[in-house]
Structure formats: structure tokens, C-alpha cells
Amino acid sequence: xxxxxxxxxxxxxxxxxxxxxxxxxxxxxxxxxxxxxxxxxxxxxxxxxxxxxxxxxxxxxxxxxxxxxxxxxxxxxxxxxxxxxxxxxxxxxxxxxxxxxxxxxxxxxxxxxxxxxxxxxxxxxxxxxxxxxxxxxxxxxxxxxxxxx
Length: 149
Description:
15% of the residues lie in helices and 31% in strands. By secondary structure, the protein is an alpha+beta fold. The chain has a six-stranded antiparallel beta barrel. A hairpin with a 4-residue loop joins strand 4 and strand 5 (62-72). The chain is globular, with a radius of gyration of 16 Å.
């Protein structure tokens, strides 16, 4: 199959929320790939999405109007209908550098700075979700990432 993307996509594991309307509950999703022009999102259940909706990406502090381009089970491709601020093509040098700093982890040495920020963001999201599930303060949870060579 021919790749029709207009810009380079970056693999990601970002928290996302589908906003179907002001009064509607937000649907949790995971942004699996992102580019300057769109994203691939994953939902925990296969559902039919509206042709257009808003996609909130909390770590980027953005809510983007999107158009649904394709769906396959729980995975969907969307195109951004307006320009993404701090475009992903430059994320490793701009947007991701603006994320809250964290202590460097030895397992991440040699990994590009932008991807380290993404990894830190994913760990922080996981820590907050675990705190909710376990009903304990988030500052009591410590997560460690180890990557085997």
C-alpha cells in the first residue's frame, strides 16, 4: 500500500481524548503515531467515530479539530484540520523540550532528547493512572524504565 502522508510521522504513546461535543463525555484514546498533518489513534474498544471531532492531546496542551480518514477495528487515522502548534516534525527540539523536566534515567542515555521527553511523559501518565486505580497519592508511586541492549 502506498504511503500518502504529507509529513514524517513519529511513533508515540501519548494520552489522547476524543471530544465529540461540549456536553458529551470525552473518550480516552492513545496517540500511537503523530505528524504535522495527522495522527494514528487507538481506542480500548472498537467504536464508530464521527467523520469530524476534536482530539485533545494533554501533553501538547492542544485540542485539534480532526477529520477521520480511516478506521480498522480499534485503530483510526485522523487528519488535523488546522496547523498543529509546535509541529511534531520539530518536536524533538521544540515542543518536547517544553515538557516538565525530570531526572535523566541511565537507561535512556544515547536516546535523542525529544524521545526521552516523550518517555518521561508516558511514565508520568502511567504514574497518575496507577495512583487513580490504586487510590494512593501519585507522589508515592515510583516507576523505573529499563531497556535491555
